[in-house]
Amino acid sequence: MAPESVQALEYLRTRAAKLGAAGLRERVRAAAQELENTVAAVSETEARARPCAGKWTIAEVVDHIAQTQIRAAEELRHLLAGKRPPGPPVYEALRSGAAAWAPWAELIEGMRSANREMVAVLEGLSDETSLPERATVRSILVVGRLRADGHSEPQTFAVELGWKEYVLAQRLHLIEHRNQIKKLRSG
């Protein structure tokens, strides 16, 4: 693994050990709100514009967040019950295809709804809640790494995460896509 990937895993592990349920919940809630605020400023025309061949539109990013967040909330429910989530992991490029046909307002609402679902799962927790730490979920992470030529490229890898690490990874996912949307808007 690239040093950046090792550093990201170390961050997830050490930060997760220090945070309680309330701290995790508030970080996810804040990241979701920041993303939603960023998306609210995007017009439908801007959302559908393809920046260049092979790059996602903002609508595709929003669809991706909706699809991954709803799956992540379900996986988190299993982890909190002490069970390994069934099925394949939430893959890094998961999208429904709705970005090609669904109204922009519907895509935004889908993302907001999925974010609310993730926060709702976390709402049921308190720092006094005794939770199983043994269950893990296979997660696909994407971390930017610096190549020798100075350019950045993604490194995609699978890792087993406990519930706290998983929640932090979802927070980082929201932040990364918020930043992606800001870059797409700035050209």
Task: Describe, in plain words, how this protein is organized in 3D.
- The protein is mainly α and 187 residues long.
- The chain has one domain (3-186): dinb family like domain (Four Helix Bundle (Hemerythrin (Met), subunit A), Up-down Bundle), CATH 1.20.120.
- The chain contains six helices and two strands; from the N terminus they run αααααββα.
- It has a two-stranded antiparallel sheet.
- It is globular and about 50 Å long.
- The model has no long low-confidence stretch (mean pLDDT 93).
Largest sheet: 2 strands, antiparallel
* Major β-sheet strand ordering: 1-2
Q: Give the ordered list of helices and strands.
A: HHHHHEEH
CATH class category: Mainly Alpha
**Which homologous superfamily in CATH is the superfamily?**
dinb family like domain
CATH names the topology as Four Helix Bundle (Hemerythrin (Met), subunit A)
- Class computed from helices, strands and strand pairing: mainly alpha
> Total number of β-strand segments?
2
Over the alpha carbons, how many angstroms does the gyration radius reach? Answer: 17 Å
CATH architecture name: Up-down Bundle
Relative helix content: 55-70%
How many domain regions?
Answer: 1
Give the low-pLDDT segments.
none
Mean of all residue-level pLDDT scores: 93
- Report strand %: 5-15%
Distance between the ends: 31 Å
Count the helices. How many?
A: 6
